[in-house]
Write a structure and sequence with these properties.
The structure holds two protein chains of two kinds. Chain A folds into two domains: 3-43, no CATH class; 49-363, no CATH class. Chain A has helices at 3-17, 22-43, 49-52, 96-109, 181-189, 222-226, 232-248, 258-269, 276-287; strands at residues 59-60, 73-74, 117-127, 148-159, 166-178, 203-207, 213-215, 218-220, 292-299, 305-312, 325-333, 338-346, 350-363. Chain A has nine helices and 13 strands. Chain A is an alpha+beta fold. By secondary structure, chain B is mostly helical. Chain B has two domains: 4-71, Orthogonal Bundle (Rna Polymerase Sigma Factor, Chain: A), CATH 1.10.1740; 83-179, Orthogonal Bundle (Arc Repressor Mutant, subunit A). Helix content of chain B is 73%, strand content 0%. Chain B has helices at residues 4-24, 29-45, 54-71, 79-86, 89-98, 104-112, 116-126, 132-139, 143-163, 172-179. The longest helix of chain B has 21 residues, at 4-24. Chain B starts with a helix and ends with a helix. Classes of the chains: A alpha+beta, B mainly alpha. Chains A and B meet through helix 1, helix 2 and helix 3 of A and helix 1, helix 2, helix 3, helix 5 and helix 6 of B.
Amino acid sequence: MTSGAMMKNSSESAFADLRPVAVDEMADDAFARRRDADLSRAMSAAPGKAARSRRPMLLVAGLAAGAVAVGGAVVLNDGGDTGPVAVQGPSDVLDARSVLLASAQKAAQASATTGRYWYDRERITARVGVLAKKGTKNRSRTPLPFTAYTVHTQEHWLARDKGDPTRSVVGIDREDRFATPADKAAWQRMGSPELEPWSRKRKVNDYREPMRLTIGNKQVTFAELAKLPGNAAGLEAELRRRYTADVKDPKDPLNGTFAQYVWVIAQDLLAGPVPPAVRGALYQVLAKQRGLRTGGRVKDQQGRPGVAILMAAEKGSRHVSGAYLAESRLIVSPDTGELLAYEARAVGGALLLSVVHEDSGWTRKPGARP
Amino acid sequence: MDDPETRFTQLYDTHYRRVMAYALTHAEPHTAEDIVSETFLIAWRRFGDVGDPALPWLLGVARNLLHKQRAGGRRGRDLAERIKVLSGPADLAAWDVADHVVERDAALAAIAALPERDLETLALVTWHGLEPRQAAKVVGCSAAAFFVRLHRARKRLARALEAGPAPRPATPAVVREAAR
């Protein structure tokens, strides 16, 4: 060993020994004190998409979107103050396939643009599942004695190019809603606990690291999204190729059918940063999938009219509140080809989650709207 | 096992102490706790993004939060200062047992003169037990670039400890900024 190497080793071991032992004691102490509160605080928000289930999904990784639970919706009780009631038209002649094909046509007609940032604004209504309170009682899935929702708006500016920061703004116009006055009273009897601390106030987050989008288990760049085939046959072939690769991935094999895979991609990409032709093609690929039903003409949580396309949830899947999921729905406007909202509903029809796409498009810089 | 709450709780229980140890070497205890809390909140919201192994990802998030907090005006202490503050009699005793060439205080003064980035680089590898490749993820550079950084930091560390304490730079904030 040369004296230089020896010097390096002894100096590095000296550096290693400078680490104060108090660090470990303090970390242990903080762990004991903070664990319960940290866990409940975090899990009072909906988990990031990949945490929802092992189903395929496209997600915008890196967004502080608390929004994306698998949720279900609740039967909105019109005696309560939870917002508009979704009304199904039972005699509607609409079928899922024709709704999607009509949407495909309209979506493909939009003009293709691009920009440095993909902007979106979403109004999120989420059923409160657990409370961010000290103590473990509610975290362990003990049902809350009331049905409540938090409602807030999020805006995101996703940088298309490496090196540009990505911004998310959460907690805009936060409201609390209760299914019925009795639910509100039950909440008040508990001392009116905070329902969701992280969205209580408007908060701007700038992320330096690039935001990665994924299709299924694989990350994709904006450039790759822009290059997806703009025709149904080509897009389906590409998605099947990706699906097969994900299913065969030895490290993290994907569960779920191809229809589920497409469904989850549609949730994100139909209102996401893809060219109009790709959006149109995606509607067409979705239209070919089995197991979709229409829920007829409905209004989204902002009261905008559309048509609901439904997919049944996997049996036994549960929302963080403990409620069993019945189905998820896409509310589309066949007139414009827009995806208006994504909802998840519980067995019985109650709303668990609604993400209303209020606006989206390309912009030049964070803070600018299309 | 598939249950996200269970998986998240495991993530928290497995990594909390190490993320906290990292934060404590960059910020005061109260701030460090808040940073770690926020780090895990982000991990929950971005669960699909948490890498495997998770620690480099978590430290990367904590690091960004620490930087952001400094940019927000409340300037964080640098690493050497944190060591000084956190050091106690047990550290002195351990140092004596290890039989280093220099006194602990002298070593501390010597490393305080190094650029913050060198200390961070060395700390990720020697204190937080990361492979250089993983440490590169934390600081957001390529593995090759990190190896270069580490090599240089090791050289400067050896020189500093050999030469004894150097005077503190007059403008530490500028040094820190340049080192980023």
